[in-house]
Amino acid sequence: MSQWFNICKSEDLAPNSGICAQFESQQVAIFFCQRNQDLYAVSNFDPIAQANVISRGIIGSTQGETYVASPLYKQRFNLKTGVCLDLPEHVLKTYAVRIEAEHVQLQSIG
Amino acid sequence: MNKQRIVVVGNGMVGHKFIDTLITDESVDYEIITFSEESRLAYDRVQLSGFFSGKTADDLALTDATYYQENGINFVLNDKVVTLDTKNNQVVTNSGRIEPYDKLVLATGSFPFVPPIAGNDKEHCHVYRTIDDLEDITASGKSSKVGVVVGGGLLGLEAANALVNLGLETHVVEFAPRLMAVQLDDGGGQLLRRKIEALGVQVHTEKATTEIVDGENCRYRMNFADGSFLETDTIVFSAGIRPQDELARQFDLKIGERGGIAINDQCQTNVENVYAIGECALWDNKIFGLVAPGYQMAKVAAAHIKGESLTFTGADMSTKLKLLGIDVASIGEVHGQTPGAQSYTYHDEIEQVYKRLIVSEDGTKIVGAVLVGNAEAYGTLLQLLLNDMTLPENPAVLILPSTGDEQAAGFGVEALPETATICSCFDVSKGDLTSAVAAGCCTMGDLKEQTKASTGCGGCSALTKQVLDSELASLGFEVNNDLCEHFAYSRQELTDIIRVKKITSFDQLLENYGSGLGCEICKPTAGSILASYWNEYVLEDNHIELQDSNDLYLGNIQKNGTYSVVPRIAGGEITPDKLIVLGEVAKEFDLYTKITGGQRIDLFGAQLHELPVIWQQLIDAGFETGHAYGKSLRTVKSCVGNTWCRFGVDDSMTLALNLENRYKGLRSPHKIKFAVSGCTRECAEAQSKDIGLISTENGWNMYVCGNGGMRPRHGDLFASGLDEQTLIKYIDRFLMFYVRTADRLQRTSVWMENMEGGLDYLREVVIEDKLNLADELEQEMENNIENYQCEWKTTLQNPEKLKRFKHFINSDDTDNQLAFELEREQRIPAQQTIKVVELTA
Ligand code: SRM
Ligand SMILES: Cc1cc2nc3c(=O)[nH]c(=O)nc-3n(C[C@H](O)[C@H](O)[C@H](O)COP(=O)(O)OP(=O)(O)OC[C@H]3O[C@@H](n4cnc5c(N)ncnc54)[C@H](O)[C@@H]3O)c2cc1C
Ligand code: SF4
Ligand code: FES
């Protein structure tokens, strides 16, 4: 059975933008979209710019899908699936994330 | 069933195109492995010479290891295929690897021909084909003064350009009586020679080199058959290419009399399951030394393997290029081999332009053309040829200088059939372009991204733009000004809404006037408008999500995710004490330090957690943020003016300082730059700024809407002989009117050019107050100035805000993947290296 781990307090989340967490020696970008109360977690590494910056991108939506635009070259990644809308051959790893007792939690993959 | 195994020998432009064609077809799944003799995956050989104007191997790369890995393509670099065993369907490489195949694709390209001259293997003798060759030439150039290119063809002249760029005294030695003998006629070749010589390159025609021996004044001496000689330190051979058909020769593949692996219309060789594509292939007894036909072959071979039908039907060899800055083009057949052909020649010895148009016997069709010095007609002429179109009544107009009347030539892109190939590098037809426009591409950028047109050699860019414009016009295009899918308003309309309805947050705006969640376009735009009107702190909680990373962290993000630190140094004036502080801070945090083009100092490479510490030290020393990250006032460039300069008329230094302090922090549609010069010698380059001021005996002259950057524009004289008070009034009104009415990311230059009435209208609004807005605009500017705050100071006083300046929310660790290296004693981001992947056999 896979386990959930506390990452930070839910009040540490930045409404409608992202934060970066260290989790199982990975960098994970966590986004809280206040307008639809959704929480997303994806890899913080931008495969196109080759830098750990995804958590600093702007959240947006297109045709009802929520995405984050990388701050470096603005490619957009679907926050649910991790797939890049502009260059679909690039995909961000996604993580299971939830809020439990005022804590943001990520699920271990192992 | 096992996947089919495809082995691709050679990972050059065409080999890669073949692989990419298969990757992008999701309906097929093959096991693909490619071998390259070179140390890199495919790169853009066509742009190879760009290496000398600053392009790096990474810039030239057509693909990378990650892309291949993600698509399951195996690749081996630095390993040449040396044996072809078509009986057992396998190949063997230099390192002894044996690789079986179901299909074998030879894409081995060609190699430079080096004439058999004694001494041609000396250390500083080079060829011009690969990045490695260019690195060798560069190294050689460092210890040389004189360079010779052997061969005056197309590539030879490119190589000559490279030697010029390396600062060498450059010579071209050609065996034939003229340059570019294949593509040009006599007249064209002669003019080209004259132009090249005018650039300082010495051309020696009808010279056959017999030997290369040690020189007296230079490293080598080249002896020619006619008894003359030339001394040089380095030599580049560019005497033609030969198909790389070594493998085919040694084993049982059919090759042509003068080389080249023979293929049929499906790119198959005479041996089953073996294909050849690109420059190594011989079709209909022809080798194609260009990339476009190679790409076509790659598609044909891929289609055949997939069981689809596509045939290779030959290719046009017309070319257009810029050699040493000279436009040269050759179209069709130019050597008089078409019976009965006649020609028109236009030769302007003053402007040095040569154009020759060769037409069919009956004068209705184009046979060929040569253009030197001005190749604007290339696109039109090529289309006439490729589409077998009938010439206009008086064909001479096609090569006569334009009289300003667009229709004079009797030819517009509208006349082209949909099937006409516009971009031959990427095989994009007019139909492809028109359907992309119909599907929503309305800028060159969109169109390039969507169709790849004009992203290769660039030769088709003018024509592509014409198709775009004519399509937009014929669609009766009303340019859609909607900001994005979330707001059906232009920036100006949103500005009015925000101002009139006194909207202070994005939530309010989205709820009442928009839809969806917003995006990276409307959010920063709204952020900028809100800041222009209410000038609240940009990191207020409800504004945070609106800020681009630059505004969010109050620094410019750099390629590796670190930030730059740019304190304001108003007017470029700085005390020694402050300079020392900058030096100390940069040293403590190991920041790369550079004087910017805006007369201030930029410190690069700060990590998130370092930013607040750095800024605290700077603010303690009396610095403020320089807003280099914002769409706002950047710098007011100055000259010392009459405080020091013997010609200075007025105190440009004090005015520059006052203006920078007055408008600092003003958020605007795009960045704004000023400059102030103390006299008409204009040392501050004020006429290239959004607002430029020049002192004269009669007062200040005010220039507006100048611009450097991508499309430079000189400012227009807006008003002259102004005193300081009037000047400031005008600037207040001008800037606020710009902030209110310009589009997102529209500099003042483009804003004014798109304004109905242009400069005159602007004068009416700002000087004559035609709209009765002047007071309101001045008042808005006043509010802005009153509410100014140094965003870094505010941030440092707010511990809550500082929480954002940490790489991880749950750890004090920092980004462990950041890597740096040293260059000229300073720290820069480590340059990435391509990883070689080990294969599982
Ligand atoms: C640092 C500097 C180059 C340098 O090493 O000297 C620079 C660096 C950048 N310039 Fe610049 N520009 C710098 C002077 C200029 C100048 C020269 C000048 O100001 O006199 C120009 C031409 C003048 C002009 O703007 O009209 C200039 C024209 C541009 C442009 C093109 C603007 C245009 O309208 O075409 C861009 C792109 C943009 O803004 O969209 C740009 C954008 C950029 C950005 C912000 C690109 C980016 O998004 O990362 C660079 C980041 C700055 C950083 O990380 O701190 N930079 N840039 C100069 C900083 C000046 C300063 O102190 O603030
Ligand atoms: C300076 C320069 C400028 C040019 N400008 C233009 C231009 O403006 N327009 C234009 O259309 N064309 C231009 N060309 C020509 C264009 O680059 C070629 O047509 C194109 O690169 C051919 O592609 P290719 O894949 O057939 O061959 P290449 O790109 O040469 O690729 C062949 C690859 O196979 C490798 N190889 C060979 N044998 C083996 C083996 N046995 N085992 C493993 N690997 C092997 C080679 O090392 C090489 O990497 C230019 C060329 C040069 C050098
Ligand atoms: S513009 Fe040049 S000459 Fe004139 S005051 Fe400035 S520095 Fe002196
Ligand atoms: S023809 Fe070369 S880019 Fe279009």
Overview of the molecule:
The complex is a heterodimer of chains A (110) and B (841). By secondary structure, chain A is mainly beta. Chain A has strands at residues 4-9, 17-23, 26-33, 38-43, 45-46, 51-52, 58-62, 65-69, 76-78, 97-100, 103-107. In chain A, strands 1-11-10 form a three-stranded antiparallel sheet, with no helix packed on it. Chain A has a three-stranded antiparallel sheet with strand order 2-3-4, with no helix packed on it. Chain A has a three-stranded antiparallel sheet with strand order 7-8-9, with no helix packed on it. Chain A is globular, with a radius of gyration of 13 Å. In chain A, 45% of the residues are buried. Chain B has 841 residues and is of the alpha/beta class. Helix content of chain B is 29%, strand content 20%. Residues 404-410 and 833-841 of chain B have low confidence and may be disordered. The complex binds siroheme, flavin-adenine dinucleotide, iron/sulfur cluster and FE2/S2 (inorganic) cluster.
Layout of strands and helices, then pairs:
The complex is a heterodimer of chains A (110) and B (841).
Chain A: E1 4-9, E2 17-23, E3 26-33, E4 38-43, E5 45-46, E6 51-52, E7 58-62, E8 65-69, E9 76-78, E10 97-100, E11 103-107
Antiparallel strand pairs in A: 1-11, 2-3, 3-4, 5-6, 7-8, 8-9, 10-11
Chain B: E1 5-9, H1 13-23, E2 31-35, H2 57-60, H3 65-70, E3 74-76, E4 81-85, E5 90-93, E6 98-100, E7 103-106, E8 110-112, E9 125-127, H4 131-142, E10 146-150, H5 154-165, E11 169-173, H6 186-198, E12 202-204, E13 209-214, E14 220-224, E15 229-232, E16 234-237, E17 241-243, H7 246-250, E18 261-263, E19 274-276, E20 281-283, H8 291-305, E21 319-323, E22 326-332, E23 342-348, E24 353-359, E25 366-372, H9 378-386, E26 421-423, E27 428-429, H10 430-438, H11 444-451, H12 461-474, H13 491-500, H14 506-513, H15 522-534, H16 541-544, H17 549-552, E28 556-557, E29 563-565, H18 576-588, E30 592-595, E31 601-606, H19 611-620, E32 633-638, H20 652-663, E33 672-677, E34 691-696, E35 699-704, E36 716-722, H21 724-741, H22 748-753, H23 758-766, H24 774-786, H25 791-796, H26 799-802, E37 820-823, E38 826-829
Parallel strand pairs in B: 1-2, 1-7, 2-3, 7-19, 9-16, 10-11, 10-16, 11-12, 18-20, 32-33, 33-34
Antiparallel strand pairs in B: 4-5, 5-6, 8-17, 13-14, 14-15, 21-22, 22-25, 23-24, 24-25, 26-27, 28-29, 29-31, 30-31, 34-35, 35-36, 37-38
Helix pairs in contact in B: 1-8, 10-12, 13-15, 21-24
Bound molecules: siroheme, flavin-adenine dinucleotide (FAD), iron/sulfur cluster and FE2/S2 (inorganic) cluster.
Iron/sulfur cluster (SF4) binds next to loops of chain B.
